[in-house]
Design brief:
Helices cover about 40% and strands about 15% of the residues. It contains 11 helices and 12 strands. The two termini are about 25 Å apart.
């Protein structure tokens, strides 16, 4: 009998998959199978400057080679920008977004001039340069064609989010509490959209997880802190809160995490070298028999 458990794998087609991606996909697939639930595949291709269709095809090929199967149709985020725009518009109508005209260079210069900047979960916290621009100045600069990003006014968002603290649960770390101080100090006014990327990862993943009925989010421990921010977005929109299982990241021989940008061996390269799916599952520490190998 099928259960209510729904998991997902959500790779970005910015490069070919490596063993770390296989490990993450395998965990999500196994959790759904063990619970007699559903496993979904989602293509997170919002960054149209880096994502390529041939890499999406390669994802399908690699995961099928590993013995994984998933429901159809596959959700591709690049086909749903209107949905993310509607979510952004909802926040804008509540005065929770503001345009930021700062370039990365300008932000760094302001941080340097201040001597130091609070260090959050994702690096230096934005100093709020554009937060207090008047409505007239914002409109004039936007009308003049100046490039801008949309930032979440974190303090205002926390005021509207409801009762505090917010909570979410991780299978390993247990119950987590989210407070306004944690969000303001840890993230600051995060970017939710840019000119070249119409919606951010944080907004899209939170939106799609509820839209697709995901009940268990399995993902790497590098995204543990981001879940605090995702919990805020869930509160702002009144979305249900899934359970989370953040797993360790696979490391290379030097102790560094496997990463596309560091040229980790790809699955297609290993396949071409004669590596079998069973050997790959053994390599990442999962039982090949669970995948039919």
């Amino acid at each position: 009998m099928q259960s209510d458990t729904v998991t997902r794998c959500a790779p970005s087609p910015t490069g070919y998959l490596h063993a770390g991606h296989a490990y993450a996909a395998g965990i999500a697939w196994l959790r759904a199978r063990q619970a007699h639930g559903r496993f979904l595949l989602r293509i997170e291709d919002i960054d149209t400057t880096r994502c390529r269709p041939e890499l999406t095809d390669a994802i399908f090929e690699d995961l099928a080679w590993l013995g994984l199967s998933w429901e159809q149709p596959v959700r591709r985020q690049s086909q749903h920008f209107a949905e993310y725009a509607a979510a952004l518009d909802s926040l804008r109508q509540r005065d929770l977004l503001y345009p930021c005209f700062c370039t990365r260079k300008q932000i760094q210069a302001e941080i340097n001039a201040a001597g130091q900047a609070p260090h959050g979960f994702e690096g230096a916290v934005y100093p709020g340069t554009c937060r207090h621009l008047s409505g007239a100045e914002r409109e004039a600069r936007m009308a003049g064609g100046e490039a801008y990003a949309l930032r979440l006014d974190m303090a205002a968002a926390c005021q509207q989010a409801g009762r505090w603290p917010l909570h979410w649960h991780d299978e390993t770390a247990g119950a987590q509490s989210v407070t306004p101080d944690l969000l303001i100090q840890g993230f600051g006014d995060v970017v939710l959209a840019r000119k070249e990327i119409p919606a951010s990862y944080h907004l899209c993943v939170s939106h799609d997880d509820v839209l697709q009925g995901i009940t268990l989010v399995t993902r790497g421990s590098d995204l543990f802190a981001a879940t605090h921010l995702h919990r805020l977005l869930q509160a702002l929109f009144g979305w249900p809160v899934p359970d989370y299982a953040h797993h360790p990241l696979l490391l290379d021989d030097s102790g560094e995490r496997l990463a596309k940008r560091k040229n980790a061996p790809t699955l297609r390269d290993q396949r071409a070298a004669g590596v079998t799916p069973a050997a790959l599952w053994q390599q990442v520490g999962l039982d090949p028999a669970s995948f039919g190998g």
